[in-house]
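Retro notes - structure team

What went well: the batch runner handled both jobs without manual restarts.
What didn't: labels got mixed up in the shared folder, which is why I'm recording both outputs here explicitly, each with its sequence directly above its tokens.

Job 1
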Amino acid sequence: MKVSHEAAILAQLDAAVGVIPDATVHRGQGMSNRFAVPGWGLPLGQYFQFGDLRIETDRVTVVVEAESAGGITNLVKYWPLLASGGRTKRLVVAHLFRVGSEGDFMSHRRLWAFLRDRMRDDLGSRG
């Protein structure tokens, strides 16, 4: 039986954010923690969630995606947002899930790395 460690890690991170000056924290699926991709024309209810925990400072947005496995939607949803060129701050995405052995979720981890590299190539070529 798989155990979800998401709530525990998010609580620890949430507590640690308190030491970051001038940081604001957003959590969950409410509208304050969602984003639209410019030009897609999605209705409000179809916006993407900005991670399980989002930390905003003047210079950077840090998004924490915590889950029990390695789903790629939590990475790929940022590709069109970044490709739109509308971001003025650096975006850091931290994808957290527990790996109990070297082989755990290997297919998900390889897919994540593959997609990350394609995104880097595409976004890098756009400047």
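Job 2
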Amino acid sequence: MRDLRPTISWLLLAMVGVVGAGAAVLGISQAPSNVPLAKAVANTLAARNYSQVLTESTPQGKQADYLVFQAPDRLGGYVQSGTKRTYVYVIGTTEYQSLTVSPSAPTTKLVLYRQASQGAKLLDPVRNYLNYVHEAKHVTQSGSNYSFSLTQQGQVGKFVVTVSGKYVTQVLLTVQGASVQLVVSQFGSSPPVALPAGAKVVAAPSGAAG
């Protein structure tokens, strides 16, 4: 079963997504006043819930992840890759994942495979990416955008973090051959994370990758 954590070297491309991300991006330039980056990171991580869209571009193609994080221990949504979709949920210490299905497949017919999980906070893409802000040594600011670079395992990752009002609303990451756009929105107003009504839950096959 797919691990929700990022997977491209230390840059860690992860999961993401929220309908209406364009509106969230437009709101960036309209914010009346922004808090400093460190405060925005703290506010974002303290929010009781938020929606996120992570779009990954690699030589193998593009993938979009659509997730909601709900404090203290829920994460859920789906991964869209081409014309296929995989539903994923983490509730407490349990992960649920569907087989890959068509986007038109009814969620009431899903079969979700259950296995132990490390927990929503450790698998949350927003937390994974905002951790890099704490590692940054030289951050430059231009309006609402904060830029810095980090090097690890011979790779240079260039980050641009956007603050809108009280929160971080976008993270852009580029590295040779790959890029990530993470859009965060609906702070405190995201839909609740719950398994789809009607979905069947079964134990994951013995030896399934976590």
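One thing worth noting from job 2: The two ends are 5 Å apart (CA to CA).
We'll revisit the folder naming next retro.
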